Structures are given as C-alpha cells and as structure tokens.
Amino acid sequence: MSELVNVKIDGKPYQFEKGTTILKACKSIGIEIPTLCYLEGIAEEGVCGVCVVEVKGSRTLQRSCITEVLEGMEIYTNSPLVRTARKINLELALAHHDVSCPTCVRNDNCELQTVSNKLGVKEVTFPQIESFYEKDLGGPVVRDPSKCIFCRRCVSVCENIQNVNALTVAKRGIKTYIGAPFDLKLVDSPCVNCGQCIMNCPTGALSERDDTEKVWEALSDPDKYVVVSTAPAIRASLGELFDLPPGTFVRGKVATALRLLGFKQIFDTNFTADLTIVEEAHELIERVKNNGVLPMTTSCCPGWIKYLEEYYPEFIPNVSTCKSPQQMMGAIIKSYFSEKTGIPKEKIFHVSIMPCTAKKYEAERLEINASQVKDVDVVLTTREIARMIKEAGIDFVNLEDSDYDLPLGEYTGAATIFGATGGVMEAALRTAYEMVTGETLESVDFIPLRGLEGIKVSDVDIDGVKIRVAVAHTLGNASKLLEKVKSGEEKVHFIEVMACPGGCIGGGGQPIPTTDEIRLKRIQALYKDDSERQLRKSHENPYIKKLYAEYLGEIGGEKAHHLLHTHYIPRSPWERAEKIELNK
To answer: Model pTM?
Structure first.
C-alpha cells in the first residue's frame, strides 16, 4: 500500500499518495489550477509559471506541476499573492505574443485565450516585444514565432513521443526562439511533417499550411473538373468541429457538404484502402513464399516513411512498395476514372481530405506520381475542410445524409478501420488468410491488434503457418520496435506503423484537442462502421474486382505495379542542413 501524506489545501485537510504533484492533488479534489506548458507524461518542466501556488513556509511560490505534496504541507491556491503572480506570468507571455486573435487560425480554440479569460487578464501592462524572427512557411507545418510563448510542448512531443528532434530552444533572453536547430527552416530539418507539434501547441504558433484558397480557386474555375476524396478517419472526427460529440459518425453529412461546396464527384479513400490491402496482402504472401525481405512493413503513413528514410534507411527494402490509399486514389482518378469518363486528366483537379499534415508532403513527392500529372493536386486537413464548410455558410449539423459516388465510393469494413492503429494490419490479415487458404475466414476480428497500447505483437495462424505481426503507433514506439528487430530480440513477419498516437484518428490535421479519451471514441465509431458493413474483407469489394477485371489485370501485375506501387529514398536527417551550413 502506498504511503499517504497529510496536506491542507485552502484550509481543508486531505490525504494523498506520497509523490503526487500539487497539480494532480488539487485536480483530484475539484480545484482547477491553470496551466500552459504542462502535458502529463510528456512536458512536465514547469516553464510557464501560470500554475504557481503558495506553500506556507516557502520563500517562493511553487510550480504545482512539478512540486510534490509533503507531510504537513499547507497550500493556498487562490491567495492574493498567487493571483497576482499568475497574472504577471501570463502577461509576460502575452507581451511576447502577437494578439491579433480574430485573424488567428486558433481563435476561439486557444489555450492562451482560455487561461487569460479564466484569470481575468484585461490588459497587458508590459511593453509589447516584437518577434525577431520571420514566419517559417516552407513546408506543410507552418511556424509563426510571433505567437510562440516558449512553453516547449512542441519540443517535448517531437523529442519524447516522436523521437525526431526537429525542434529545439535556441538563443537566450528576449531573442529566445523555438524552431529547427541551426536556424533552419523546418523543411530543411529532419521534420517528418506529422503535425503532433501542432496538436500540442497551446496557441497559433504552429499550424498546417492553409491550402483552402487553392481549392476555392479551383472550384470557381470552369476549366477544372474538381473531385474530392476523403480519408477513413474523417467520418469519425469532422463533426467535433461543429460541436458534435467525439466519435459521431458523419460520413453522409460529409458527402452532402462537399456537394454543396461544388465538388463534381465525391469519392471515398476507403475504396483505395481496400485496393491497398489487396496489393499489400499479395505482396506479403509473395515475400513469405519466396523468401523475400522480411519483416515487411506498411507504407500508408507518410510520416513513418520519411522517418524510416531518415533514421532507418537500412529498412527501406522491408517497406511495402504499395502506395498509400491517398496516392492510389490519385493514380486511379487520373488514369482509370479519366479514361472511363473521357475527362482529360489534365483537367481533373483532385482534392484529398486527410486527418494528416504529412499527406501534404506525400502528395508533393516526385517519385509517387504515376500518371505524368500530379495525382493529388491539394491536400486539406480535417480542420481546413471544416473552415471551408463554415465559410460557405453550410449548416453541417442539420444536413441530410447522402452517399458517395460510384465506383470509387464503395468500401468494405476492412477499409474503414484503416483510421485506427492496428486497422491496416487487421484488414491485411483478413485478406491474406483467404488468399492463402482459399477458405472463408469466419471470425474477422483480430482483437489483440486493437487499442492504444504503444506496441502490440501477436501470432496468427494461416493454414498452419505461424505469422508473427507487430503494430506500433508514434514514431518513438516504432523506433523501439525496429531496434528490437535489429538486435534479434523480436522476430516478426509483418509490421504496421502509424506516426500519430492512435493512428490517423489522432493525426496532425485533426480537431484540437485530441486526447486518448477522444481517440478511443473515434476508434469505436470506425469499428462500429466495420461491424455493420455487409462486406468486411477488402477483396470482396465488387468494384475492386471490377477495377482489376476492366483495367488493372492481375493483382500485383505489371499495370497494377506501375500505377499502385512506388519506391523510397535513403535520406540523411541532416544532409540538407549540412549543405545549407556549407553554403552560408
């Protein structure tokens, strides 16, 4: 049994386990202490000073997020000294902050705004300090130093969760800034564009590159035929940006809203998630049968792919050559759909709606476009499409449901679970089993692969052959798994990796905040959709069968390989940085 300590908080006696921080102790008894820099288990450095409390006998105020309760401690959470200190610390942060709130992407969803309102800050009594640094606009993740309050949450997430280390604290005093090391742009750093820094930034200092204007221009251009495809995870998260509960399934409303915006065809990236599984399962089987390179790893997450190219290039031969569902959809739209409809591929403008900022980067990769034109013209995040719907004055919550357009709008249950960690693996196993055995897989639910555990390993029996599979989400967990594979500690045949916590449902383009509780509700919505689909195996999708019969030919054949597969490039995480330094 844990040792208990006796503490008084605001004059009332309590008992807490020894080692509990004052912040957690107060929260457990219903006292809310404001924080800005604190992220439990990730960023616990006590940087911002907004959470200070008064402790009797202490010469200074204590930062509640890093100070543990002690026997006989008397704590005051709302004394005049505490209130004054919190306001001063907050005003110091605001003095460095560009307070142009109405034009900020985080307006009405900003922790700095929220804490300022709660603490009753009506004005900033310190002189405004202009930023010394320009905006970093070079890539999918945009950094605005004028909005940074130096909380270091982005640094902690990038280092402790993603193991990327693309952000750091540089210089000192009023010239302190947070950005890529060596004064680099993020695009020249090892940044994998996962967007988890955005998800954990309390202000608008980090955001996705806003590509909505490109889409508005395309929609108003009579010479463009504008089509759209939406990712599996969108249907379980977009509703939150219209005040619907997390996990509300809004696929039908999404289709209606996109038609009202003016898109000519509404396609579902779930269709090409099914296509990805058919190709990927075939590739896995071929590798196992023919002593190919194992373990094979999934390739649908662009943040994971860039991380592997930079930090584990020796594993490039292990990666499935399958494109992601987004890029397969682009290739099919600009080839099959173009030829089927007679619309020139040069005229088709394809917008992809993703829960992910790294998908913006993926769409720009030169080696991933197969149709001699850009397969995906613009990628919008969940947040961006919500802004467009609001800008158009569409009453999203009260929209009638409608369906997506065939043939690229049909999908199976296996496709929809792509949005959750473990979902790609589960979908692949459903198809691989039937491809190998020729028998019907009666129980399609692979429960051990589900949930938010960082690394999951399981054995699967396929016709007497034991297949050992592993699932990891977040790049830090992926790194741990790869190190075990390298050392021989873990022997597996197939690995799924998603860069973001929980998979795509926790992607860098999703609604903010995204907590584990919210992630689980989104995941539940996807598995519910899976369980309710008449078809739950990717190879059973009738329009996938028709696509192969009419256009692609054999699974894994020459035409399928040309359109649906790609290759990867070894990258030094600091190679570009070294060249930039040499050229200065």
So the answer is: 0.95
